[in-house]
Amino acid sequence: MYEKHILICAGTGCISSGTLDVRDALQRELEKHNLTDKVRIILSGCHGFCEKGPLFIVYPEDVFYVEVTPDDMPELVEEHLIKGNTIERLLYKDPTTDEYIYNHEDILFYKKQKRLTLRNCGVIDPENIDEYIMRGGYRGLKNALFMGPTEIIHSVKSSGLRGRGGAGFPTGIKWEFACNSENDKKYVVCNADEGDPGAFMDRSVLEGDPHAVLEGIIICGRAIGSDEAYVYVRAEYPLAVRRLRTAIAQAEEYGLLGENILNSGFDFKVNVKEGAGAFVCGEETALLASIEGERGMPRPRPPFPAVKGLWEKPTCINNVETLANVPLILRKGHDWYSSVGTEGSKGTKIFALTGKVNNTGLCEVPMGITIREVVFDIGGGIRFGKKFKAVQIGGPSGGCIPEEQIDLPIDFDSLTAAGAMMGSGGMVAMDEDDCMVDIARYFLSFTQNESCGKCTPCREGTKRMLETLERITQGKGEAEDIAHLENLAISIKDSSLCGLGQTAPNPVLTTLRYFRDEYEAHIFDRKCPAGLCPDLLTYYIDPELCTGCRACIKVCPVEAISGEKKEPHVIDEPKCISCGACLERCKFDAVKTK
Amino acid sequence: MGEQMGCACAVEEEFDYEKVEKVMENYEGQKGAMVPILQSIQEEYGYLPRPALEYVAKRLRIPASKVYGVATFYAQFHLAPRGENIIRICRGTACHVRGVSKVADKMKELLAVGVGETTEDMKFTYEEVACIGACGLAPVMMINDRTYGKLTQDRLEGILEEYREGEDQG
Questions:
Q1: Interface confidence: ipTM more than 0.85
Q2: Mutate to test the interface with A, among B93, B106, B132, B140 (most CBs of A within 10 A)
């Protein structure tokens, strides 16, 4: 019997911060002190607080250590495990009160969260099916096996669950369509081709709780009358692929997958398909083409996949996070589920909170929470005391919400009304140093690059929009550019074949709506208000701060800086190419931009 | 078909088809296996050699253009040999706002290559990808299967050094 359990976060974030070295060092220390049969090390899934990784929790006392290193292990074993003293310096320190916090639930980052989909992430060993079962796993499936398809679909419909992959289509209705399509063969497809830059919730769920996704897939199969599923997962997520395969093998061994599941007469098989790196494959019809081994290009709908999908058979496609919600609905009931959230958006949503906030990581919040609560309470506000400017929600399909709308409740409908989109749940906070025209240009360069080229509005339109935005950020914008961008945006939205093109103009439209003055400053004043676009910056040296060390003179590639030793230097503006080398080199912050 | 293959004869003589054949046998009779077949071939050779692609087309009885179409659609596939170590810098949103551009420029300078290129000694191939999904640690890059977070320009040389001395660490 183990006396203590130590959970070390082994999500991708923490692994890159050194989790495995910490584990090895701990193992060595435990061996040294003959504690290996008393203390058990568990590598858990993502705990969400990536910023402070590697994360380390000691049970039963539930002490939460952050940023641990292999060098901390001797002290940890001797002081904490043997003598029972908590090591203060490894605890999380509240940045506002400077107090040490022992328990992770007391940290503001976790306090405002409601972890339903992530309930097991960071708590169980994702490669051990018994731990999932002990936490109530596969009970939803058991209930579903007693229910008929109509009853399961009724339950999912009543729960109000909407697709978490982007557009928010009601999941129960999708299932009903597929259920009503009569055919000898039907497929379930789990879309794990998480391609949005800035989003990694699907990765974390698959890595931290693969059985929850698997259980959701099997329940979906039961509901629509299918006997086979495909999980289409990015090859860029090797750990997620591996854990999913392990989970499938374990479920088969336990009779939860395969023939005659739990003696119900229901057969079900799950295959894993690795994507090969094409953003457009997140679009459902393109994804199906990719599974079939073709170029991943979308096709017109109708016919919808629920009628003619994979290999022309009725197919029900759901996103990872959506499916991970399903077991809970079947286990705890739809009334319980729909008690969380707002009128039109039920349950919770996982966001990847990144960018300029203090606490980056993965958080799960009830629908209806405000942007302010997420950015300032969970995210701990903006880094380095800078001013909050906007939050980008929904990745390349979404938009930038400005500070004036910070009290906007987050749900599917309010975000769409504000011009953004729930998207998959990337949330990137931006501060005064971020140029909104540059952000729009960044997203357009992404969508333009990822456009599959099948339909003209998307292929040519995104290219023209990108060219215009590039000209603006280079200081070559023209008066009619804004109207030109707006016209193009509307045409692309209206006439593109699939979701990629239909939403690609959103980042431009929202920045034009809320930050038009920044576009105008770039075009008419040839200035970048955030001081980011290199071609629009003028460099100068503050004579008060310059010590005359000549460092900038040496580094300037075009000999635009002059001045005597120990005398303030001067930049010759016409000669300067705005490369920024002097600014980086100066140790006294004397080089400024305007 | 036979004549078309003829043009690759010179290469064909030296090319070792055994590995491709093995891959093909593994996926015998499976529908929609084109992507995994190409993935397995790339795993064997490090890239997709032209004779291998032509062989796949012959074995599947489909035009070589179709195989080529799939191979060029996906970012994962490469038609030219690549370096021993693959460096992938993340150009995702979180990395963008946390200044990955400077890190990327420094890396290109250190390696003296452009995007998608391989160093002369075949040690490193430099690539840029849309998002690695480790946004909490932006800016981020991967070398082979290992992720490096919270990058700064100054850290790059040290990281590269690990791979220059020793063998493949991925």
A1: no
A2: B93
